Amino acid sequence: MTSSTTTRRLKLGVRATPYVFAFYMSAIMAMLMCFVITAANGGIGEHYLTNVLKAYQLAMPVAFVCVLVVRPIVLKLVAWTVHPHSDN
């Protein structure tokens, strides 16, 4: 068995793309926002990282659902805003 066969087996099908996109987008954005909002609200002190991770426990699932719900709306807004043909 080659490494490309092994790698191919570990990948999800193309139908999972919206969910994988939502997972990665929400995971990254929720973590970044938790870092920023926790610092803005309580400063960066002794329990900063613990507070960030507590906030992330709530923020990540909420962000995931929000991305799933908002993604189709954003795709339509982009389609209304961006001309489909290249300006070059």
Using only C-alpha atoms, the radius of gyration works out to 18 Å
* Poorly predicted residue ranges: none
Terminus-to-terminus distance? 45 Å
Beta-strand portion reads under 5%
| Biggest β-sheet strands, sense, barrel | none
Indicate the percent of residues in helices.
over 70%
- Helix-and-strand structural type: mainly alpha
Secondary-structure element string: HHH
Outline, from the CA principal axes?
extended
Number of domains: 1
Offer a few descriptive terms.
single chain; 88 residues; mainly alpha
Brief characterization of the structure:
It contains three helices and no strands.
How would you describe this protein?
By secondary structure, this protein is an all-alpha fold. It has helices at residues 3-10, 17-42, 48-81. Helix 2 (17-42) packs across helix 3. The N and C termini lie far apart (45 Å).
How do the strands and helices of this protein lay out in sequence?
Blueprint: H1 3-10, H2 17-42, H3 48-81
